[in-house]
């Protein structure tokens, strides 16, 4: 007599590997299970600690977690760890994790960023950027949409740009082939079935006015609104068309510095756009290297107003504690005809100017802006969230001032950590990779997501009388039923 072990999901399972003691007789058993946890440690200290599973080769980072016991918003954590220096990530991929450090879904490909849930035609999708990126902060790729069966399609418009040669050569040929023209920084859905994306164009320009070469080159910041169904561009904007309102000398990034020298082989990234969203019919953009947030007209692309992190721009001068620099993820909230609130992640650091004081720590800020714009009054800072310990993130980062229950979420970007704050700013939950200073996650999200994979089944591994099971990407399994079938030998 031989036995085959068959497994049936009672519902659809989340990713955590489960372990069972196998039955010795009978036909069907419902057996209590528990999450299987094993952490990998690299004795050479070249990889940060990672999680190990019996049923798959996925290796998400092992995280340190603190929780003060106060209520948290429902949902999973979305992150895309990537190495930067020192101990590496065991696997660079897109991960959806529970608050308890258990894997729910791994997007098992290299070059995934901005993994999150967005809505198209009233239907939630996982969206993420996939492509080739360099540590200078640019990338060339496509936007992937995955439905609740984890079947996907891509948005990959032809944007007719010359890529930065640090990532690709001037003919658009990279080590992994040409993936697409969409940049890594932004892939923001609108309420009109379009998506907003960034792109970077390597462009010849006279830089003698800012101490560069007359035959210099820039990395020009572009953004596009793309129709998802047709993949046609419905609006485009490039920074160099608006030098009358945003001149080169407003950039705080040196022409010759750690990132560039203003030549064709190392073009100057003078503006560095990193987020876009619709505000009414117009476009709110954040530009790291000018320390400014701009509202761009949908009619002619002109600047309607801008908030400068040092001078205040079109608003009155900011108080010292409200100044920001090298910022990311600017978003508008509570928009009316007379005011709006503006949130952003203030890096306050770069390769060019490191700080070691409280004022220089990375932080999350919210401003109240009265309209119409008037430089006789300043933008009012209404929130300021410092990290639970001093963090100085040179790049990346995200801030969501309300994740659904009044709690707030900060992703610390270059410091691989995520913090959930209560409505009043108290730290309720904090998670960090074991070596947070050597791994980054460009943004972090906490969202509700439900999926049942259609193209792959649960995986079962039997070892030493125990069964280990997982189903990559399934979210709603409550229990498993294990069958032991008897088969007669003739």
Automatic annotation (TrEMBL):
It comes from Zasmidium cellare. The keyword Transcription does not apply. Keywords: Signal. This is ASST-domain-containing protein. Residues 1-21 form the signal peptide. The keyword Oxidoreductase does not apply.
């Amino acid at each position: 007599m031989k036995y085959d072990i068959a497994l049936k999901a009672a519902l659809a399972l989340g990713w955590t590997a489960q372990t069972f003691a196998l039955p010795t007789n009978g036909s069907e058993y419902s057996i209590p299970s528990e999450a299987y946890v094993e952490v990998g440690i690299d004795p050479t200290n070249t990889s940060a600690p990672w999680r190990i599973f019996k049923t798959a080769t996925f290796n998400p980072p092992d995280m340190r977690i603190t929780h003060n016991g106060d209520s948290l918003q429902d949902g999973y954590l979305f992150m895309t760890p990537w190495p930067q220096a020192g101990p590496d990530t065991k696997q660079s991929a897109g991960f959806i994790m529970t608050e308890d450090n258990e894997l729910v879904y791994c997007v098992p490909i290299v070059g995934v960023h901005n993994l999150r849930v967005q809505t198209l035609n009233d239907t939630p999708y996982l969206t993420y950027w996939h492509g080739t990126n360099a540590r200078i902060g640019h990338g060339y790729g496509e936007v992937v949409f995955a439905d609740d069966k984890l079947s996907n399609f891509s948005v990959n418009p032809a944007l007719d740009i010359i890529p930065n040669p640090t990532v690709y050569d001037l003919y658009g040929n990279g080590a992994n082939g040409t993936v697409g023209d969409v940049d890594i920084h932004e892939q923001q859905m609108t309420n009109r079935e379009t998506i907003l994306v960034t792109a970077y164009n390597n462009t010849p320009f006279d830089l003698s006015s800012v101490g560069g070469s007359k035959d210099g080159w820039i990395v020009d910041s572009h953004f596009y609104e793309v129709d998802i169904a047709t993949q046609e561009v419905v609006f485009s904007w490039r920074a160099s068309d608006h030098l009358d309102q945003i001149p080169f000398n407003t950039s705080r990034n040196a022409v010759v510095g750690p990132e560039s020298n203003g030549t064709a082989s190392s073009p100057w990234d003078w503006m560095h756009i990193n987020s876009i969203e619709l505000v009414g019919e117009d476009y709110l953009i954040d530009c790291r290297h000018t320390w400014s947030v701009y509202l761009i007209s949908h009619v002619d692309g002109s600047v309607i107003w801008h908030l400068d992190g040092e001078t205040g721009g079109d608003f009155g001068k900011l108080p010292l504690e409200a100044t920001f620099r090298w910022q990311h993820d600017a978003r508008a909230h509570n928009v009316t005809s007379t005011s709006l609130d503006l949130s952003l992640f203030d890096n306050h650091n770069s390769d060019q100017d490191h700080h070691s004081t409280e004022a220089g720590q990375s932080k999350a800020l919210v401003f109240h802006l009265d309209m119409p714009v008037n430089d006789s009054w300043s933008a009012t800072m209404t929130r300021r969230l410092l990290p639970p310990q001093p963090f100085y993130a040179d790049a990346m980062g995200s801030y969501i001032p309300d994740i659904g229950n009044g709690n707030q979420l900060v992703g610390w970007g270059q410091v691989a950590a995520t913090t959930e704050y209560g409505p009043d700013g108290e730290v309720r939950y904090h998670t960090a990779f074991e070596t947070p200073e050597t791994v980054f996650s460009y943004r972090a999200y906490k969202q509700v997501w439900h999926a049942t994979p259609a193209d792959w089944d649960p995986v079962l591994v039997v070892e030493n009388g125990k069964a280990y099971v997982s189903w990559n990407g399934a979210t709603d399994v409550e229990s498993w039923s294990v069958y032991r079938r008897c088969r007669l030998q003739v």
